[in-house]
């Protein structure tokens, strides 16, 4: 019976169901057993993008709705995508802090308070990016489906967690 349970659990990991929140992997080396197991748990094949002579590498699992950012071989960021955001499918695993893509900015602010920083959106008459917020103490940021920085009814498009605080994407 235990053998059957283990096989079922391995099967679910293999097809990408039941993905766990990966925040405990932040700071781990890409070659670590934990990181390699996590990377191998996605059914899709990643698109790998390198920047700064290979020091900064993104593993983009578009069909699985997740991107992992490595700097000098260490996992420094994880981006979880809602459907139809930047060509990514919707991430279907567990999100950090019990977040959901169905939450509005108003609901997130009732959970976390006002964000430390707000980026993008409409600023001085120029549209930059979707509105992004950062909660540095929690090392989490979000992009919302709006260019209006005052829109509290916008839903989450991307959730990102960082090893050292929030960064713009």
List the helices and strands and how they pair.
Elements: H1 2-14, H2 33-40, E1 47-51, E2 56-61, E3 66-71, E4 74-81, H3 105-112, E5 117-119, E6 122-123, E7 126-127, E8 132-135, E9 140-144, E10 156-162
Antiparallel strand pairs: 1-2, 2-3, 3-4, 4-10, 5-8, 6-7, 8-9, 9-10
Overall helicity: 10-25%
| Contiguous uncertain segments of 5+ residues | 1-18
Q: Strands of the largest sheet, in order across it?
A: 1-2-3-4-10-9-8-5
Number of strands: 10
| Number of self-contained structural domains | 2
CA radius of gyration is 17 Å
Given helix and strand content, the structural type is alpha+beta
Most strands sheet = 8 strands, antiparallel
What string, H for helix and E for strand, traces the elements in order?
Answer: HHEEEEHEEEEEE
Write down the overall mean pLDDT. Answer: 83
H/I helix tally: 3
Give the DSSP E fraction (strand runs of 2 or more residues).
25-35%
Shape: globular
Q: How far from one another are the termini?
A: 46 Å
């Amino acid at each position: 019976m235990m053998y059957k349970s283990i096989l079922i659990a391995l099967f679910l990991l293999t097809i990408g169901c039941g993905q766990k929140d990966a925040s405990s992997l932040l700071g781990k080396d890409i070659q670590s057993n934990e990181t390699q197991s996590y990377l191998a748990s996605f059914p899709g094949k990643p698109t790998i993008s390198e920047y700064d002579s290979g020091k900064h590498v993104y593993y983009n699992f578009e069909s699985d709705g997740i991107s992992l950012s490595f700097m000098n071989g260490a996992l420094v960021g994880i981006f979880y995508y809602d459907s139809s955001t930047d060509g990514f499918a919707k991430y279907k695993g567990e999100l950090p802090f019990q977040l959901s893509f169905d939450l509005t900015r108003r609901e997130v602010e009732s959970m976390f308070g006002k964000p430390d920083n707000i980026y993008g959106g409409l600023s001085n008459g120029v549209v930059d990016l979707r509105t992004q917020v950062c909660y540095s103490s929690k090392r989490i940021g979000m992009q919302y489906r709006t260019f209006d920085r005052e829109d509290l009814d916008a839903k989450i498009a991307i959730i990102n967690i960082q090893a050292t605080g929030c960064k713009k994407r």
